[in-house]
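Hi there,

I know you've been waiting on this one. I reran it after we fixed the sequence typo, so this is the corrected version. Both the input and the resulting structure follow.
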Amino acid sequence: MSDLVHLTNARLAHGDQLISGDLWLDPKTGVFLPPPNPAPSTSAIDLQDRIVAPGFLDLQINGAYGFDFSEDSASNHNGRSYTERYRDVRRKLITTGTTSFLPTMTSQLPERYHQNLPFLGPSNSRDPFNGSESLGAHCEGPFFAHNKMGVHLPDAIHASGTTSEPKRVLDTFGASNLLNPDDGSRLGSPKSIPSHVRMITIAPERPGALDTIKQLSQAGIIMSIGHTAANYQQARAGIDAGATMITHLYNQMNGHHHREPGPLGILGGATDVNSQNETRILEQAMDADVNLSHRPYFGLIADGNHVHPASVLLAHLIHPDGLVLVTDALLLLGGQDGTIDWLTRRLTKKGVSVTLEGTDIIAGSCVTLLQCLNNFRRWTGASIPVALQAVTSRPAAVLGLSHRKGTLRAGADADFVVLKEESVPGQSTSDMVVDQVWKFGVKVYDQSSP
């Protein structure tokens, strides 16, 4: 009797197509396999034409189900430790289809990063029942423009000063949290290996930021520009220095103007800028080809609150291959409407909206990637396989993990979701529903099970 798992009669998400076919995987190694020849005598699992997609990846999630990744990891909550609550959140999160994620810390004072980041680094275990897998932490802040803080802690951002040179950044996060000390490489070497931190969001216009972006990106850390007052040229300089991502496009950055396009203008791909012209008008010959090869990926929060549906569609039309859906979810994901304490502040949840108590300032979201995916399809008309790329292959590409995550190819980790379509009255697109979730080749969630 073979130990391999054979799934049949499925629609497999490959690129921009759904392809009818079979899938083979090995639960012992936790990876997908090529079709064996000859095929072993094993009973196939009939998926009855349901969709199989790679597991979802969330590159920006601050917490969920009553737990915040930035809270004090040294204290207990109702007698339960930080590690216990973190484990429980991962086990709940995976039932939504998110099989991997970057636990995101908001702007904090250095001691909190030093304390928490070792807990949030890449998961070492391949136990499928540990829940959603951390691929490394995302440090969103504190090196922001002081007028683009959002709801991040002002004390932490002001404590970071106005500069972002490499030494200041390393001291804030802790050098051992950024680079693996066992690697022996020095900062700036392409051979360096990231430690607990996988991504950093930084405002590129701050003095020293470009050096930091260059050195840390060469060390393998994903650098993303965000919470920034950068104009087009400053944002472009951040990308040229090595940033490959824009954090939650539109939110906490300068808006688009036809003479000063801001960070949004980078998605168009034009790079020929006349630096002598104070209005920064693009200087291109009428017959010149626009360079589309040097465009970043960008996160987009499709919760119906952060970004207008028309703006979601616009970003998709400008640079469809760069769009990555993220949740920016807070501890209120999975909770009831009401007001709760959050770090040193209070948040109010009403439906999908989360604001600072008594204000209309958006504080984050309380939606899943699946909800963002369904919203995105409804607002853009994107096909199912095209929309799925925004939560699978594209975030995997951002992280340089296309060989392991976000794909159903042989040799990749067997993390996947089984989806069914549900029609919605008055809606031209169907909604996706998570029917099953598999992690490392083992089924860890089944909607039909009690």
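Quick highlight: The two ends are 29 Å apart (CA to CA).

Best,
R. S.
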